[in-house]
Amino acid sequence: MSNFIPGPTYAEMLDPATLPAALRDKALAVQGDELDPANLFNITWRGPDHGIRHVLVPKELTGVKANIVVMAGRFFPSGSHKVGAAYSMLMEGELAGDIEPGKNTTIGPSSGNFGIGVAYVSRLKGYPAIVVMPEGMSAERYQRIRQYGGQLDLTPGSESDIILVLERTREYRQDPRHKVLAQFELFPNYRFHRYVTGRSALEAAKPYGNGRVALFASAPGSAGTLAAGDAIKSAYPECVVAALEPRECSTLFNNGFGSHRIEGIGDKMVTLIHNLLTTDYVVLIHDDDCVMGLEMLERRHRSLEPLLGLPAGLLECFQGLFGVSGICNLLGAIHMARFLDLGPDDNVVTIATDGFDRYPSVLAELERRRGPFRGGDLGAQFEAIFRGSDAGDILDVRPREQKERLFSYKEEVWTKFGYSLTYLESMKSQSFWDAEFDKVAEIDTKLVKERASIKAKG
Ligand SMILES: Cc1ncc(COP(=O)(O)O)c(C=O)c1O
């Protein structure tokens, strides 16, 4: 491919120190100029000091004995780790010869962050992009997509109306110039998170407790991030994986659906790339608790510190780190750690997919709904949101009948989109997922060769 703009392998995203030194230096040097294509080599969980970007949440805040580690996705180029899934899909499509700059337009079906990622990597790699997403998402998302030159195609409804997005996407497939980066069904999303996020999670937890991971909690949208749980279970088979859902859209919990306020998750379906075999629990989280919890951490952290017995300024490092789904993940991690009675040796890992920069409009909307923020009952509000879990909101999905229910839900969705029952049946075996994962080595080798051949051509 003559006009191929190269990016990193999976192994380099996990550990950019393995990049040729000149390339790594260039990538670090262009961080302030986000439209420089060398930023593709900054798609990683690691910061310039090489450590996995994360925070350990103070126990005064969580109220549980276990160590809760939150990996911070907002430092990825474009502001969320979803760019990793978008890049991986485009990179694999190019290597397979399916997608080529100058010939194709990328289509990004999304609830926002993946769309931002698609618009961003498409811009860096020289493709026009169309992002198909619901019309009811935060204003900041549309703004970012436009900023990267992406075109928007909005479908009716909000977060949980993502099936309409998939139906619209199907129309785009009629034109062979359109290449759909289908995050809900393509395995680069699974590979990126199992290889890059999962192994980064193992490393993030290492300094704490017994160095292992007892619980991984993540709220699925595409369920890509949940694949990190597969990597963690490979290292520590005892690790419990919990999928979190809005109580207002309890799809995995009891086939329920409805609209909700946690952008990016709770998409009213079992996605094709969700490995149901390794999901142990489903936990419901009230959507407004996440919005209000975000408001507390962002706007009222100074009043919260003395109430929690924390030194002044300690919550400062959380500023900007969480979005609404990040709070959902934090609440789910806390509730599950309490439910499992995890102790001080146990580590819990969860994710903040994006940061606060995407949500000022959501807090403005909360204030319109609820009236101005008042400080008087902050302690009680905090207790209710961060500590007030209900055991009825936790469902063990390890029993066979639960797996069968979830498998049949998956079949109901994906046979409509043309997947055969035989293929869906094959997903009931862990060997299916391991084989998908094992493709990483072959893909990386191919990419390294492709890069070398461009270099040789000069
Ligand atoms: C803000 C936010 N949180 C969580 C998720 C869920 O991540 P995943 O799609 O990997 O399940 C998304 C996905 O778009 C998101 O945008």
Q: Quick gist of this model?
A:
This protein is of the alpha/beta class. The chain is built from 18 helices and eleven strands. The chain has helices at residues 10-14, 21-29, 59-62, 82-95, 113-125, 139-147, 162-172, 187-205, 228-235, 251-254, 287-299, 301-308, 324-339, 360-370, 378-387, 400-416, 421-426, 430-457, and strands at 54-57, 67-72, 105-109, 129-134, 151-155, 178-180, 215-218, 240-246, 281-285, 347-352, 394-396.
Describe this structure in words.
The protein has helices at 10-14, 21-29, 59-62, 82-95, 113-125, 139-147, 162-172, 187-205, 228-235, 251-254, 287-299, 301-308, 324-339, 360-370, 378-387, 400-416, 421-426, 430-457, and strands at 54-57, 67-72, 105-109, 129-134, 151-155, 178-180, 215-218, 240-246, 281-285, 347-352, 394-396. By secondary structure, the protein is of the alpha/beta class. The longest helix has 28 residues, at 430-457. The two termini are 13 Å apart. The mean pLDDT is 94. The chain binds pyridoxal-5'-phosphate. Residues 82, 111-114, 219-225, 263-265, 323, 325, 353-354 line the site of pyridoxal-5'-phosphate. Pyridoxal-5'-phosphate is lined by residues 82, 111-114, 219-225, 263-265, 323, 325, 353-354.
What's the topology here?
Layout: H1 10-14, H2 21-29, E1 54-57, H3 59-62, E2 67-72, H4 82-95, E3 105-109, H5 113-125, E4 129-134, H6 139-147, E5 151-155, H7 162-172, E6 178-180, H8 187-205, E7 215-218, H9 228-235, E8 240-246, H10 251-254, E9 281-285, H11 287-299, H12 301-308, H13 324-339, E10 347-352, H14 360-370, H15 378-387, E11 394-396, H16 400-416, H17 421-426, H18 430-457
Helix pairs in contact: 4-5, 4-8, 5-6, 8-9, 8-18, 11-13, 11-15
The structure holds pyridoxal-5'-phosphate.
